Amino acid sequence: MSLAHYPISFLATPALLIAALLLDRLLGEPGRWHPLVGFGNLASALEKRLNRQHTPLMARLMGLLAWLALLLPACALAYWLTQLTYGWLLDIVLLYFAIGTRSLKEHALRIYHALAQQDLPAARHAVGMIVSRDTTELDERDIATASVESVLENGNDAIFGAIFWFVLLGGSGALLFRLANTLDAMWGYRTPRFLYFGWAAARLDDLLNLIPARLTALSYALCGHTRSGLSCWWQQARLWYSPNAGPVMAAGAGALQVTLGGKARYHGEDKIRPTLGTGPAASAHSIDAAVRLVNRSIVLWCLVMIVAYALIGACHA
């Protein structure tokens, strides 16, 4: 987004960001007619049509074609509309739809309250709404671990990644990131069905997340126990199977001074994951602490942006 795009250019981007965050805080995610639901349905229909019995190379090409067909027209239209006279209103709306701050907090605290009341069935059901692992046999520690991991990772995927691309490209950038992340969540699995077709969605999401994930990790470290956050990031992130989730979760676990990772069951099979963080295992209170860490990081991003754009404005005055 150009700095000259709005009348008070040096404060435009922070103002639009704060407006979108306030809109999300007031309204949360739409209960009905959420655009991402329609996008998901369209993506599923296209995947069923294109994901046939192809060779690995052809399956990768079909996956890339599907990704481009779903994202390019939507983002190009969004960019064109945001260049119109009142395009700044659409910028706010697009960022509002791209972030999920209130939804993430509500999901996490639902699990926290269920654990606080020793209601394991309710806690398992609630955590199953935000993680992809099997939850039917999770104990309290496993539920807390899964919840904290989800809060930390979704802090990047559902908040900071979208903000980063909003700063660079405006509302169309936030839309690009959110749609790409949605396709990765739908197709980016190493299962027989998506191993090749979902390759492009997974790799492109990794690329779009490369810088935001590390800025998120730094934010977690600065807003929590900084020494532990930075140390765990440096020592443990490379051990994680995801190049972007590793820094985010390692720094977040260190900042919270809890231990994450370990065994988890996915699609009926146990997966032994590296240990992240330091200190005791996650508990119900760790969930609330993770939510507060994300909230402090949001405040940090807003303050940094206000100061940065004010300095840019002063230099151009």
From TrEMBL:
Predominant subcellular localization, coarse grouping: membrane
Subcellular location: Cell membrane
Parts of the chain that traverse the membrane: 6-23, 57-80, 158-180, 298-315
InterPro entries according to UniProt: Cobalamin_biosynth_CobD/CbiB
Pfam families: CobD_Cbib
Pathway the protein takes part in: Cofactor biosynthesis; adenosylcobalamin biosynthesis
UniProt keywords, alphabetically: Cell membrane, Cobalamin biosynthesis, Membrane, Transmembrane, Transmembrane helix
UniProt topology in membrane: Multi-pass membrane protein
Stretches assigned to coiled coil: none
Function: Converts cobyric acid to cobinamide by the addition of aminopropanol on the F carboxylic group.
Annotated family: Belongs to the CobD/CbiB family.
UniProt cross-references to PANTHER family, sorted A to Z: COBALAMIN BIOSYNTHESIS PROTEIN CBIB
HAMAP family associated with the record: CobD_CbiB (MF_00024)
Name listed for the protein in its UniProt record: Cobalamin biosynthesis protein CobD
Species assigned in the record: Methylobacillus methanolivorans
